[in-house]
Amino acid sequence: MTFVDEVKNAVTPRAALLVVGVLALQLLFIASYVGALHKPKPTDVPFGVVAPQQVSAQLVGRLDGLPGGPLDPRAVSSAAEARHQIMNREIDGALVVDPRGTTDTVLVASGGGSALATSLEKITREVLAGQQRTVRAVDVAPASPDDFDGLSSFYLVVGWCVGGYLCASILAISAGSRPANRQRAVIRTGVMALYSVLGGIGGALIIGPVLGALPGSFWGLAGLGALVVFATGMITLALQALTGIVGIGLAVLIIVIAGNPSAGGAFPLPMLPDFWRAIGPALPPGAGTWVARSIAYFRGNAVTGSLLILAAWALVGTAVTLLLSMRRRDTDGDVPGAATARGAEAPGTGATGTGADGSTAGGSTAV
Q1: Is 262 exposed, middle or buried (0-12, 13-18, 19+ CB in 10 A)?
Q2: Please, how many CA atoms are within 13 Å of residue 61, restricted to the half-sphere of its CB?
Q3: Residue among 259, 257, 254, 280 nearest 268 (CA)
Q4: pLDDT below 50 — which residues of the chain?
Q5: Which of 76, 139, 306, 360 stands 20 to 30 A from 259 (CA)?
Q6: How far apart are CA 263 and CA 163, in angstroms?
Q7: Closest by alpha carbon to 285, among 148, 198, 155, 167?
Q8: CA-CA distance, 259 to 254, in Å (whole number)?
Q9: Helices H, strands E: what count in the chain?
Q10: Residue 203: its pLDDT value, please?
Q11: Are 285 and 259 in contact (CB under 8 A)?
Q12: Could you give the CA distance from residue 53 to residue 55 in angstroms, rounded to a whole number?
């Protein structure tokens, strides 16, 4: 056997295609993470301005005209209203001008990402430095001292996502990536649901009571975890039902390559490039990270949209998985009958056979 023949035996055409696919995922991984995170800078950050009427419009215009467009400023009626909007995650910070003194206040929320809070403080200091005014920062929603840079919620959601698609992958490849029938698909869905509940509770237990890294409702985080795991797992099962083993790669593409760098974890969404900022909230890691931070630091506010996104992933994944399993069962339903018919017509497969001399004799069925 020649070396070329050995290569053909060692690497089948199917394996070669899968290797090319893995190479593409590897390069996309590098491009996505480096592209999203190599140069973070705030852009169009929702930012409130609380100032006397005669000063407010001028200050909003000045902040809006900063080079690079870091802020999207808007006038806010009072400091209390600015705090309310920050806690409802409508704005990420606010400048409160003191008309009777020279020290103004910038309201930030490090629970939504300390990198963004630091950037807002720096920008306002630079803007007001030329007016002989100083700025003091007040953290309206401070991150936990045990939650460095506000990253714990992001890593928690990443862990849930990884568990979701790995569990689904194991369920699929253990007995074929495409569900053979509706019963098997229902069983896999049930196992995925049970695993999701356990994963959600386990993650909330570790991040809260065990490590004390993230405050907020234990059961709120556990419920979020169950939804994140189930949504990720079911969309993985659906992709495998559609494309077979390639579905695992597609799940990695959606969750890991596109989802993680755009989730607003290491750097909040307003600091990411436009493409990643646009797709992040619509993918499970981004939606999950937003809700986890809201539960931990923003009294559970502004979570409806992200929860609906996660629910949509879960429902679509479940529906596609079950529908494709029913379709395949219907498609394969005639195969046993066809095999039986072919077996009845095949020579030597009946209960009797014809010998070489033309005589007939009983014989066993050939397999």
Answers
A1: buried
A2: 6
A3: 280
A4: 332-367
A5: 139
A6: 17
A7: 155
A8: 6
A9: 13, 7
A10: 98
A11: yes
A12: 5
Question: 362 CB contacts (<8 Å, ≥6 apart)?
Answer: 351, 352
Positive or negative, the CA dihedral 63, 65, 67, 69 is positive
The strand ranges marked E within 2-143 are 45-50, 71-75, 93-96, 103-108, 134-139
Crossing angle of helices 218-243 and 284-297, in 10° steps, is 180
What backbone torsions phi and psi does residue 96 show, to the nearest 5 degrees? -110, 110
Q: Find out whether 320 and 179 touch, Cβ atoms under 8 Å.
A: no
Count the alpha carbons within 13 Å of 259 in the hemisphere toward its beta carbon.
Answer: 28
Question: What pLDDT is stored for residue 16 in this prediction?
Answer: 86
Q: Which residues pair with 49 in a beta bridge?
A: 75, 95
How many other CB atoms are there within 10 angstroms of residue 74's CB atom?
Answer: 17
**Beta pairing class for 93-96 and 71-75:** unpaired
pLDDT in the model for residue 296 = 97
Query: In one letter, which amino acid is 248?
Result: I
Residue 30 forms beta bridges with which residues? none
H or E element at residue 362: strand 360-362
Give the predicted TM-score (pTM) of the model: 0.86
- Closest-CA residue to 202 (of 166, 184, 228, 165): 228
Type of residue numbered 290 = W
Contact 238, 321 (CB under 8 A): yes
- Tokens for 115, please give them: 């990198």
pLDDT of residue 95: 97
Q: Give Cα separations from 113 to 99, 110, 150, 159, 318 (angstroms).
A: 30, 5, 5, 19, 33
Give the Cβ contact number of residue 131 at 10 Å.
Answer: 11
Q: Which helix (H) or strand (E) holds 83?
A: helix 79-87
